[in-house]
């Protein structure tokens, strides 16, 4: 519940600090006294829009803070999930500031928090209902969630939505595959052409480099033969005067001297080693000299033809033959993936069928429970509306199955609130039949019923008495008082019948200080309440009969049956 509120430099409020109690609290005051400013401050505290126009004229910044206690499990869980600790007494302080540059900052228990977190926590702390909120009754999109909240179906809705989300993802993938089928076929055809184009040449890794080297050798064949022949003769081929002949003679000359001159032994060994190495080199040169690959012209034509084919592949698929081969491997892989997409479509169709059946089953289960809850809800709301002086009212909650093709994120149901306020009229949507007063009473009736499962410990009603007066307003006051037995209730009202039933009566007033208008707030004692109620009942002046009527209201608060 809301324990205290502090407002500084917001509109006509310079500084305002007030403590609150549990039960039913009414707030009254003359038009323009600042009631709406207090409500705007609370909205700001709960994550509402921070408009620098809210800042009091001449000030640099504005601030609002509040302390909440007895938070309830939902708010405590939201705080714990966000890593915000409660005070030792289980309370929490929220503070928000707005500066002239339009920047806003927020804290929970001194810890800076984001605006999204502030909103998330705030919706579990205060349920604020102004005249605009009454209009939510005219928004048919909210009816399903309202009915689900009454029937505590949120966990089942979450379970259904998990299946529905998977179903939508499968359908999205199928849609993408269907849209891309023509493109897939074009891609398959192109890949198959590219693979066949490369396979027709059938290049091997490094083959282009090897052929270019071979072509050079063939084109320089005569030069190679001439030079290699000379080298072979010089090393070995000449009978006398070749390097190998001279080395052999040198070794033969030195070997007999090894015993006489020991130093010659290693020299002889080195020369012998050179002989073997030169002989090996000569034989290898001879092999080149003796090589004959056939007609050079035919060989060159064949090589150049293949190199030309390689060049065409390189222009299409890569700078080297190795890159062309890698391109082919990747194309084969892509083609395999695309060929496998047919299997994917089959699998997705099966998944769609399974998920659709499961979603429909869960949706029908929700429909059954919603239909049962709708009967209970319409009965309870009708009872309250009858009490609130709508004797001919007919209120119904219609739950209509859209069918299997109508599955949506919240199930298969359209929920509609319909009402007839007058005898003989056919029940129609609220937007077509409800006046301002009827809408306010219907809204209150709905909140009274939903309060049994309310997640918020504090409810604020702004001018719930719109369009009603007299006995009906009194009954609205009793309903608010009844509601306050389980929830802290605030009512900003212009109705003496409602205000007189509050446990605490706060007066919002304006006064002038230092040449500026300021809004103030004070708790009224019995005499103060008598004066304020008389003012509300009165016209230009307050008469004794009006004071007697106000006194009678306060006295009957303790004795009048709460019905």
Could you describe the 3D structure shown?
- There is one protein chain.
- The protein has 563 residues and is α/β, with parallel strands linked by helices.
- Among the domains are: 1-125 and 456-563, Rossmann fold (3-Layer(aba) Sandwich); 207-319, no CATH class.
- It has 19 helices and 15 strands.
- The chain has helices at 35-45, 73-81, 115-122, 131-134, 143-151, 154-179, 181-201, 207-219, 221-237, 243-254, 264-289, 296-317, 321-387, 430-433, 436-450, 470-483, 496-499, 526-537, 544-559; strands at residues 2-10, 13-19, 24-28, 61-68, 92-99, 104-108, 111-112, 126-129, 394-401, 413-420, 428-429, 458-462, 488-492, 504-513, 516-523.
- The chain has a six-stranded antiparallel β-sheet with strand order 2-1-4-5-6-7, with helices on one face.
- A hairpin with a 2-residue loop joins β1 and β2.
- The chain is elongated.
- The model has no long low-confidence stretch (mean pLDDT 85).
Q: What top-tier CATH class of the domain at 1-125 and 456-563 fits best?
A: Alpha Beta
Strand order, main sheet: write it out. Answer: 2-1-4-5-6-7
Coarse structural class: alpha/beta
Given the C-alpha coordinates, what overall shape results? elongated
If you compute it from the alpha carbons, what radius of gyration comes out, rounded to the nearest whole angstrom? Answer: 48 Å
- Estimate the mean pLDDT confidence: 85
Major sheet: 6 strands, antiparallel
Number of strand elements? 15
CATH architecture of the domain at 1-125 and 456-563: 3-Layer(aba) Sandwich
The fold-level CATH name of the domain at 1-125 and 456-563 is Rossmann fold
CATH superfamily of the domain at 1-125 and 456-563: P-loop containing nucleotide triphosphate hydrolases
């Amino acid at each position: 519940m809301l324990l205290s509120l502090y407002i500084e430099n917001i509109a006509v409020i310079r500084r305002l600090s007030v403590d609150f109690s549990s039960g039913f609290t009414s707030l009254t005051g003359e038009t323009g006294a600042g009631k709406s400013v207090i409500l705007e401050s609370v909205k700001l505290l709960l994550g509402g829009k921070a408009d620098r126009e809210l800042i009091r004229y001449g000030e640099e910044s504005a601030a609002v803070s509040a302390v909440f206690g007895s938070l309830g499990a939902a708010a405590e869980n939201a705080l714990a999930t966000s890593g915000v600790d409660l005070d030792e007494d289980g309370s929490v302080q929220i503070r928000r500031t707005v500066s002239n540059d339009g920047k806003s900052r927020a804290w929970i228990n001194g810890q800076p928090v984001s605006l999204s977190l502030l909103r998330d926590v705030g919706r579990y702390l205060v349920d604020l209902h102004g005249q605009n909120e009454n209009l939510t009754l005219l928004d048919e999109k909210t009816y399903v969630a309202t009915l689900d909240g009454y029937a505590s179906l949120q966990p089942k809705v979450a379970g259904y939505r998990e299946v529905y989300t998977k179903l939508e993802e499968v359908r999205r993938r199928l849609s993408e595959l269907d849209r891309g089928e023509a493109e897939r076929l074009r891609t398959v055809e192109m890949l198959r052409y590219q693979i066949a184009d490369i396979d027709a040449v059938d290049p091997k890794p490094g083959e282009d480099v090897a052929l270019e080297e071979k072509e050079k050798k063939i084109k320089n064949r005569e030069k190679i033969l001439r030079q290699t022949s000379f080298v072979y003769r010089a090393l070995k081929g000449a009978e006398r005067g070749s390097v190998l002949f001279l080395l052999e003679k040198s070794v033969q000359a030195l070997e007999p001297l090894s015993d006489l001159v020991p130093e010659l032994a290693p020299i002889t060994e080195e020369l012998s080693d050179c002989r073997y190495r030169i002989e090996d080199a000569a034989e290898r040169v001879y092999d080149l000299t003796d090589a004959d690959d056939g007609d050079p012209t035919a060989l060159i034509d064949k090589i150049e033809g293949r190199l030309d084919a390689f060049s065409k592949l390189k222009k299409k698929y890569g700078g080297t033959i190795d890159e062309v081969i890698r391109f082919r491997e990747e194309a084969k892989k892509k083609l395999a993936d695309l060929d496998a997409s047919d299997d994917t479509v089959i699998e997705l169709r099966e998944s769609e069928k399974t998920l659709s059946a499961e979603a429909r089953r869960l949706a029908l289960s929700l429909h059954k429970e919603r239909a049962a809850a709708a009967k209970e809800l319409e009965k309870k709301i009708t009872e309250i509306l009858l009490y609130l002086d709508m004797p001919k009212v007919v209120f119904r909650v219609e739950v209509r199955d859209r069918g299997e093709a109508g599955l949506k994120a919240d199930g298969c149901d359209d929920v509609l609130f319909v009402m007839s306020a007058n005898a003989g009229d056919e029940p129609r949507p609220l937007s077509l039949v409800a006046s301002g007063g009827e809408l306010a009473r219907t809204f209150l009736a709905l909140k009274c019923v939903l309060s049994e499962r309310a997640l918020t410990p504090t409810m604020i009603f702004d001018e719930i008495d719109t369009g009603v007066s007299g006995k009906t307003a009194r009954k609205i006051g009793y309903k608010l008082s009844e509601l306050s037995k389980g929830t802290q209730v605030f009512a900003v009202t212009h109705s003496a019948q409602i205000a007189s039933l509050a446990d605490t009566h706060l007066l919002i007033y304006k006064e002038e200080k230092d040449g500026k208008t300021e809004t103030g707030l004070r708790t009224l004692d019995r005499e103060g309440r008598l004066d304020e109620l008389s003012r509300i009942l009165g016209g230009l002046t307050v008469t004794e009969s009006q004071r007697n009527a106000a006194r009678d209201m306060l006295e009957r608060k303790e004795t009048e049956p709460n019905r």
